[in-house]
Amino acid sequence: MIPADKNAYSRYLPTSRKAMDWKLYVTDCGFTMVASGSPYPPEKHPPEYMLDPERGRVLNIFEIVYITRGKGTFISDISGTHSVTPGTAFLLFPGVRHRYHPDPKTGWDEFWVGFKGEYAKTLMSPPFFEPEDPVLHIGLYEPLLKLYMEIAELMQTEPFGYRHIIAAKTTEILAHVYARSHGKTIRSEANEKLVREACCHILEYAGKPVDFAALSRRLGASYSTFRRVFRLHTGLAPNQYLLQIRIRKAESLLSTTVIPVQEIAAKTGFESNYYFSRMFKAKTGFSPRAYRRQSQP
């Protein structure tokens, strides 16, 4: 057991074929209680994990870090700068440069687990999580903290089958983080109104270029929030929703009119006949002309 008064613990696991076959496997975990005024990071880690406070770092794994005390800052090349407070979890994605640090006046307590695998890629992709929106405010939640500590203890004691057990507990951490960061707000009246107005705009202007960043600003939301809420409500990213509407309109025109294919491409907002034909076949399995032949009497 890890002593209750221990203020830091970390463990880095070698990759094994049995662990990889599980499709989500843990690579590292730990916790650090950083006192106010302490240097950060306060301890040494393997070179590939070391965090340069100025330059940041790029990992080849996923990590989820949970802050339970203190405050600080998180920065990534994709998402920009975010404030971190107690009850914040932030996500680290492979290939994305990032850096973070506690406020020297407060320090912070951090818990983390790193993981990889094909199933990990699925869970860490939309509609669940995305690098554009890595900082999630989930509150102080005892069951989540308990899971981090259980993983650390299992990695220290190594009972039989522990690699699979800590993988399951990591999946449970992701489930808690997703539920607590999205469940309370995603079906709010404000979000329903946001998505409804966005869908109406997309439907009305589907035949023209749609600037989703400008649309999100007009609707009073950041672009990352707009994309996340829209996908969680509709099951599609905004650009895929627009593409679906354009394809459905093209199907209708091809089956009910004799308008030339090139003109249909222009009417439905495609930048070229070639791009229209390619996307239409990708979505329907038919070229536009073949679709017209089989749909018209």
Q: Topology, please?
A:
Elements: E1 8-12, H1 17-20, E2 25-34, E3 62-70, E4 72-76, E5 80-84, E6 88-92, E7 98-102, E8 108-116, H2 118-123, E9 135-137, H3 142-157, H4 162-182, H5 189-204, H6 212-218, H7 223-234, H8 238-256, H9 261-267, H10 273-284, H11 288-295
Antiparallel strand pairs: 1-2, 2-8, 3-6, 3-8, 4-5, 4-7, 6-9
Description:
This protein has 297 residues and is of the alpha+beta class. It folds into two domains: 8-182, Sandwich (Jelly Rolls), CATH 2.60.120; 185-297, Arc Repressor Mutant, subunit A (Orthogonal Bundle). It is built from eleven helices and nine strands. It has helices spanning 17-20, 118-123, 142-157, 162-182, 189-204, 212-218, 223-234, 238-256, 261-267, 273-284, 288-295, and strands spanning 8-12, 25-34, 62-70, 72-76, 80-84, 88-92, 98-102, 108-116, 135-137. Strands 1-2-8-3-6-9 form a six-stranded antiparallel β-sheet. It has a three-stranded antiparallel β-sheet with strand order 5-4-7, with no helix packed on it. Helix 8 packs across helix 11. The longest helix is centred in the middle third of the chain and has 21 residues, at 162-182.
CATH homologous superfamily identity of the largest domain: Regulatory protein AraC
Count, helices:
11
| First-to-last CA distance | 75 Å
Overall pLDDT score: 90
Biggest sheet record: 6 strands, antiparallel
Q: Roughly how much helix do the residues carry, as a percent range? A: 40-55%
Structural class of the helices, strands and pairings? alpha+beta
Q: Please report the total strand number as a whole number.
A: 9
- Sketch the topology as an H/E string, one letter per element: EHEEEEEEEHEHHHHHHHHH
**Rg (C-alpha, Å):** 24 Å
